[in-house]
Amino acid sequence: MDIKVVGNDVEKALKTLKRQLQKEGIFKEIKKRSFYEKPSEKERRKQREARKKRMKAMRFRRPAV
Questions:
Q1: pTM (2 d.p.)
Q2: 21, exposed or middle or buried, with CB in 10 Å at 0-12, 13-18, 19+?
Q3: Which three-class secondary structure state does DSSP give residue 9?
Q4: Count of CB atoms situated within 10 Å of the CB of 13
Q5: Other CB atoms closer than 10 Å to residue 2's CB: what's the count?
Q6: What does the alpha-carbon distance between residue 30 and residue 38 come to, in Å, rounded to a whole number?
Q7: Which residue of 8, 55, 58, 63 has the fewest C-beta atoms within 10 A of its own C-beta?
Q8: Where are the transmembrane segments (predicted)?
Q9: With contact defined as beta carbons under 8 Å apart, do 19 and 1 qualify?
Q10: How far apart are the first and last CA of the chain?
Q11: How far is CA 29 from the centre of its chain?
């Protein structure tokens, strides 16, 4: 990852960095690894995320004609 600071505008570079980290899921990964997660909880979380992803995909699908 490479963020360039243009014209000493560190605030803008920092904002760009945060946006890039958010997009790549780094913050989510850090939060997930900060505590131990039991295998049963992990399975439920994965199922919940998959269900959420499926529902989102269904919203953007074209209706069958």
A1: 0.57
A2: middle
A3: coil
A4: 14
A5: 4
A6: 17
A7: 63
A8: none
A9: no
A10: 44
A11: 8
